UniProtKB/TrEMBL annotation:
<feature type="binding site">
    <location>
        <begin position="18"/>
        <end position="19"/>
    </location>
    <ligand>
        <name>ATP</name>
    </ligand>
</feature>
<feature type="binding site">
    <location>
        <begin position="195"/>
        <end position="199"/>
    </location>
    <ligand>
        <name>ATP</name>
    </ligand>
</feature>
<dbReference type="GO" id="GO:0005524">
    <property type="term" value="F:ATP binding"/>
</dbReference>
<dbReference type="GO" id="GO:0005829">
    <property type="term" value="C:cytosol"/>
</dbReference>
<dbReference type="InterPro" id="IPR024109">
    <property type="entry name" value="Trp-tRNA-ligase_bac-type"/>
</dbReference>
<comment type="function">
    <text>Catalyzes the attachment of tryptophan to tRNA(Trp).</text>
</comment>
<feature type="binding site">
    <location>
        <position position="135"/>
    </location>
    <ligand>
        <name>L-tryptophan</name>
    </ligand>
</feature>
<feature type="short sequence motif" description="'KMSKS' region">
    <location>
        <begin position="195"/>
        <end position="199"/>
    </location>
</feature>
<keyword id="KW-0067">ATP-binding</keyword>
<comment type="similarity">
    <text>Belongs to the class-I aminoacyl-tRNA synthetase family.</text>
</comment>
<dbReference type="GO" id="GO:0004830">
    <property type="term" value="F:tryptophan-tRNA ligase activity"/>
</dbReference>
<keyword id="KW-0030">Aminoacyl-tRNA synthetase</keyword>
<feature type="binding site">
    <location>
        <begin position="147"/>
        <end position="149"/>
    </location>
    <ligand>
        <name>ATP</name>
    </ligand>
</feature>
<dbReference type="InterPro" id="IPR002306">
    <property type="entry name" value="Trp-tRNA-ligase"/>
</dbReference>
<feature type="binding site">
    <location>
        <position position="186"/>
    </location>
    <ligand>
        <name>ATP</name>
    </ligand>
</feature>
<comment type="subunit">
    <text>Homodimer.</text>
</comment>
<dbReference type="InterPro" id="IPR014729">
    <property type="entry name" value="Rossmann-like_a/b/a_fold"/>
</dbReference>
Amino acid sequence: RPRVLSGIQPTADSFHFGNYLGALRQWVALQEEHEPFFFIADMHAITVEQDPRQLRERCLRAAAQLIAMGVDPERSAIFVQSQVPAHAQLAWVLQCLTGFGEARRMTQFKDKSSKNGEGAASVGLFTYPILQAADILLYRPAFVPVGEDQRQHLELTRDLAQRFNHRYKKTFRLPEPYILKATAKILDLQDPHAKMSKSASSPGGIIEMLDDPKLSAKKIRSAVTDSGSDVRFDEEEKPGISNLLTIYSALTDRPVSELEEAYAGRGYGDFKKELGEVVVEFVTPFRDRTLELLEDRATLDEVLRSGAKRAAEVAERTLADVYDRVGFVPAP
Ligand code: AQP
């Protein structure tokens, strides 16, 4: 079975709808016919300052949420990045293959460092995409399910893999991004030109999966839309309504065209109210299950322990090949 690999940062108490619809939902679907490795990216998280206790707690919350949304720990290795040291070890080798100018072109660093100025950003934030390349290449996956914002990083990953293969010997598989067009970029409910994001969105712009479901329904009802009344998918003229249609369609598996027909002539009020109900119905069991799992720390620890063991077996084999090819003296 081809492998899939993806990760998510434990930088909030809850995942949001962008994470879920852009990436995590595909994790669940892909585990059917692939060999999946899914990790909680705590090393990426510390590229900006984190409270240590909170970081540890959020890793467990992330694991609980992944299981609650349907990632099956029997089929998928769910693990914490820092527990598999090969990630950091391969990252160093890849850093030595990356041009400074090449790293500089990463737009996410530009976006994330623009607020406080580049000088205040950590070097880790700058080299983050290279660690991400290591995360991926260690597992030689065929696919990496992510949102659109990760496309550039995936391209860098492929470039580095190719460079290594060419300079030394074919070692890495070139991974394909797995990006579902319809949900590749879920937008901020209050600013439907920006992506829904845990660091940039205002509280009203982001739907957190573990929020009180009633609050989420309210956020949908207050979402910014245009001054018209037609429920129609048009990303240029109606970005807010189009974003809500995308969310509605993804949660119910009903095509956008069917929703447009169902709401023809009924106005935005009805549409938002009913989408709010869909959201409540979707998040309520997810939230209950997550909270239940969080009561059972021993099971979560065991899932992460066995996930890290499975991941390390694969990762260490790749790293051994890399060290050999680079010319490192074998460890005693
Ligand atoms: N708005 C989004 N639409 C579609 N996909 C999204 N993803 C994130 N936001 C959207 C996808 O979620 C996965 C995990 O993301 P991450 O934890 O690595 O962090 P991120 O991409 O940095 O998420 P945020 O919310 O945007 O955090 P900040 O604000 O800190 O940058 C990824 O596959 C991502 O594509």
